[in-house]
Amino acid sequence: MTNPVHFERHLRDLASVSSWVVLAVAIGMAAPAAAQTQTQTETEAAKTADAAQEGGGDEVTVTGSRVARDGFQAPTPVMVLTQEQILNSSPSNNIADFVNQMPALAGSTRPANSRLNLSSGQAGINALNLRNLGETRTLVLLDGRRSVGSTITGLVDVNTIPQQLVKSVEVVTGGASAAYGSDAVAGVVNFVLDKKYKGLKVAIDSGITDKGDGQNYSFSVAGGFAFGADDRGHILLSGEVAHRDGIFKVDRDWNATGYVRIQNPAYDATINSGVPQFLIRKQVGAANSTPGGLITGSAGGTANRLRGVYFGQNGAIQQFQYGALTFPSPTGAAAPTLTQGGDWQVNDSGRRIGLDPQDDRHGLYGRASYEIADGIELFAEGAYNKQHVFFNAGPNLATGVALSATGCGAALTSATAPQTCNAFLYNTLGRAQLAGITSVTIASTAADLPFRGVDNKREVQRYAVGAEGTTEVFGKNATWEIYGQYGRAKLREQLRDVMNIAKMNNATAAVFAQAGNPGGYATGSIQCLINVDSIATNNDPGCIPLNRLGLGVANPGAFGYVLGSPYRDELVEQYNAAFNLSVTPFRTWAGDVSVAMGAEYRKEQISGYVPPEFQPLSALDANGRPATTNRWSVGNYLPTNGSYNVKEAYLETVVPLGLGIEFNGAARATRYSTAGYVTTWKAGATWQPIEDIRFRVTRSRDIRAPNLNELFAAGSANSDSVRNPFFTNDGANGPASIGYSATVTGNLNLRPEKSNTWNAGVVATPRFLPGFNLSVDYFRINVKDAISTFGAQDIINLCFQGQQQFCDAYVTDPARSSPGQPYLQFRSQPFNAASQLVRGVDIDGSYRLPLDKLFGDSEGAVTLRGSATRYIDNLFNSGVPSSVVLNSVGVNGGQASTPKWIYRGSLTYDTPGFSITGVGRGVSSGKYVGNGIECQTGCPVSTTQFPTYDVNHVSGLFYTDLNLTAKIAMGGADAQLFLNVTNLFDRWPLLVPETGLAANSTYSDLLGRAFRVGIRMEMR
Fold first, then answer.
1. Is the CB of residue 246 less than 8 Å from the CB of residue 356?
2. φ, ψ for residue 565, nearest 5 deg
């Protein structure tokens, strides 16, 4: 519990930290009186004033600070996206898709790249990520206030924003924790609503891809009106419905090229290390499983004599044709995983998976306000959002499935087959094929079984009451607000049709019932072994034998037994109360000194429930450490419960110093119930020597406190496969790749992350070129004590490098392992061990040219806009001794990577009745992996830290969008008909050499060319 005396002492510390404010004021007062008085200029929105003029809307006022003051331009860079830009340039009916096109946002979580987050509950989320520092380091606000997260990690889903009422989006691209609080390490994205809107507006649209799939539609309506004497009251209402059909398979040409990284069979670290370890090739496919099952190994007689036999329609026996380039060798001890040529297209795991989730969203928003006296307005607002996301997460892939074959070859009939002989194996292969065979190992993508589904439901509610207004203090206008807010997210995270490990093993172990069997089953009938063996305690009457050898052979009656739909329910709640005041207490010779101050209390909590049958079994291993036994192939949820609270107070000031210089500083004292006390601060200045140019610089200390998940996560398991760094060509150290399940738990000892941020830039608005604006800003963000968790591949690689503590972080799961094919269980938790440095330059410019300046009475204007970010460094240090710090800038291989250049430009021609906008956007080309060494001959020895590749380059992207808008007559309403064409030239995604989905889903357009048509109308 926080000691009030201690917190008061920290408030006194805040006052001490803020003493530089007094110094700045003194400097301003002592400057020569004859110095030039600062020129009042437009607000930060001057860069986008042309956009506001297009829409005929109100002036856009943006400060990027808590200080409310006319003409103030914060030193922290702020990008403003106006309503007009959103309407005319958005690629979809979701505002997040437009915001994520801004180059400052990189690596954001979207439905395209979160669709396979099976156990985290993030599938279908739209969360924003500034600077690719992680979504949890970007603070998302609604009208300057926090909103409850839609996940346990606190991510605010942009889907919950009432999009029809968004007037602008402010992107503060710099550390802002002193002004806005925790999480604003990379910056702030603030969605500003038009709270005084009067009128009625309706929008309806529908879209489809040129492939005839991906159908979607949305409908929204918003209205506002004033009431009462002198229109002191105001009512605002908004509602929207959006639907996406989803795309449940990947049948795009770009996913059928077989563009895959394959390990070079010729590489040997001891005798042939001069060749690259990895080759990038086309027409490469998985050789470790097939839709109806593939024999990857057999024991008895000649080793692996049956390898390569796979099962087709109705169990037809076929022989897999391995290509000339296959790894590992088909004749080696370890089973092949990849092959070029031959039957490389037989495996279908990359096609039988969803491309786009089915998504249904419903949202309601309402606000009522009343000015009870001059300068005092009471308000109440509420929002309710409901979302249902369903997605095909791919087949029920299973490797290392062991089938007993002992005695099969000697059994003349099924009636004489012993219980050590799998019945389906005997019927499918026959006794002759099984002569001398004692066991068979298969792998299958299980085309007979339903696909694994993600079925997430979210209900997010937010309610606020408060008062705000203006008054006169010290003879100057002052603004204030006080409010209380409650938010809750009710989450149901469910998986559909995933395998119950024990029951799948029971149904797979099918044998012929022998005469006089304990269950009384007909002699020679196929039954589950557990029901006909001599052990009475393992019987399960519900067990139905499952044939996994072929297509069209599985008994659908067994699906209900071997498959299930585990889920967890979570309730995330946020309580928030705050007071903010902005005043101008006095004036120096150089101008008004403004001060903003405030205090805030916030409580975050989560309560969870998981039915016992969906939880993993918990125990202690031989060393007394916590261990779990998974019941399900994925999921294995545990209930998470916990809470923390935060008390904060801040002070911010703006002090004019003369000579066109203005100082802006802030400090915030924060007490976390879990992580203790921390101080954040900001110091910055702007200098405008002449009207045409303004310089700005900011230095800040920012923080991010651990979230509910990082603190309290009880654990849930994700599954995938890792490359085995211990692999050798003789197979003595296991297969080339190993399946795994990983469980991450929380850590109550986490401390807040700390970040030191620099921003420095220049804004040019030359008078000799009216309508032109340009800003260039350098940023440097250095995060210390970063909270991070090691992934499974990192853990096994570090174990290979001799780090014993990482070898202790995983064990073999006996329930899912078979001879020669282990299945691993990893366990990890977050620590304050990492650091990360991100540097780059933002460039943002626009030019608007009214055509009457060129052609006399011509109507309309041409507007050119462009923004780009040149990333210089993104250096992540895990904190592990001897680990290599890599720069992920210029790497295009995944969501965590950062292209060197991200850019977006648009050209608009608009008239009073028509507008056309062309958009070009993309990323630069780069490396596939950051630590890869490209070489063809004379290569150094390949290591896990620096592997060698024959090619380590992947392409960039350039997409073109077209947006047309025309005014139409519709009664007395202002109406517009619009058409958007996204990816006009149907450019392929950024391909990466991997099996499964062969594209970088973060920066790519996966759907191809898409059309959206709709109508917007408004009556005032």
1. yes
2. -130, 75
Return the HEC string of 385-397: EEEEEEEECCCCC
Whole-number Å distance between alpha carbons of 1012 and 208: 7
Between helix 19-30 and helix 4-17 the angle, nearest 10°, is 20
Residue 620's beta-bridge partner residues? 626
**What single DSSP character describes residue 109?**
B
Mapping DSSP to helix (H, G, I), strand (E, B) and coil, where does residue 648 land? strand
Which amino acid is present at 689?
P
Query: What count of other Cβ atoms lies within 10 Å of the Cβ of residue 751?
Result: 17
Assign 3-state DSSP to the chain and report helix, strand, coil percentages, each to 5.
Answer: 15, 45, 40
Angle at 368 between CA 364 and CA 373, to 5 degrees: 165
| Per-residue pLDDT at 139 | 92
Quote the CA–CA distance of 800 and 947 in Å, as a whole number: 14
pLDDT for position 909:
94
* Pairwise CA distance, residues 293 & 939, whole Å: 38
Q: d(Cα 164, Cα 346) in Å, to the nearest integer?
A: 47
Q: Are 310 and 357 in contact (CB under 8 A)?
A: no
Q: 48, 62 in Cβ contact below 8 A?
A: no
Question: CA separation (Å) from 539 to 501, 529, 707, 946?
Answer: 16, 9, 45, 52
Rounded-to-integer distance, Cα 262 and Cα 297, Å: 21
Q: Could you identify the residue written with the tokens 């001959």?
A: 937
Which range among 64-78, 282-296, 645-659, 952-966 shows the weakest confidence by mean pLDDT? Answer: 64-78
Q: What is the pTM of this model?
A: 0.88
| Closest C-alpha to 103, from 897, 1002, 904 | 904
Nearest to 332 by CA among 317, 322, 341, 347: 322
Query: Phi and psi at residue 124, in whole multiples of 5°?
Result: 90, -5
How far is the C-alpha of 83 from the C-alpha of 456, rounded, in Å? 31
| Strand, helix or coil for residue 224 | strand
The mean predicted confidence, pLDDT, of the chain is 87
Amino acid identity at 858: S
Length of the chain (residues): 1020
Instruction: State the DSSP string of 916-936.
Output: EEEEEEEE--EESSTT-EE-S
DSSP, residue by residue, 399-422: EEEEEEBTTGGG-SSGGG--TTB-
- According to DSSP, the β-strands at 737-744 and 933-934 are unpaired
Between 478-487, 796-805, 984-993, the lowest mean confidence (pLDDT) is in: 796-805
Rounded Cα distance, 387 and 626, in Å: 36
Backbone Cα Rg of the chain: 31
Can you tell me whether residue 749 is helix, strand or coil? coil
Q: Judge residue 663's burial from the number of C-beta atoms within 10 Å of its C-beta, 0-12 exposed, 13-18 middle, 19 or more buried.
A: buried
Which DSSP symbol is given to 91?
Answer: S
| Residue 178 in tokens | 């002193």
Q: What are phi and psi of 440, to 5 degrees?
A: -130, 140
Q: What is the DSSP letter of 560?
A: H
Give the full edge-to-edge strand order of the sheet including 309-311.
Answer: 317-319, 309-311, 294-299, 439-444, 398-404
Greatest pairwise CA separation for the chain in angstroms: 112
Residues 6+ apart with CB under 8 A from 622: none
Distant-in-sequence, close-in-space partners of 932: CB < 8 Å, separation ≥ 6: 278, 946, 947, 948, 949, 952
The reply to whether omega before 328 is within 30° of 0 (cis) is yes
If pLDDT is split at 50, 70 and 90, which confidence band does 959 have? very high
Give the tens place of pLDDT for each residue, 692-712: 999 999 999 999 999 999 999
Strand ranges (DSSP E) for 851-956? Answer: 861-877, 886-887, 901-910, 914-923, 926-927, 933-934, 948-949, 953-954
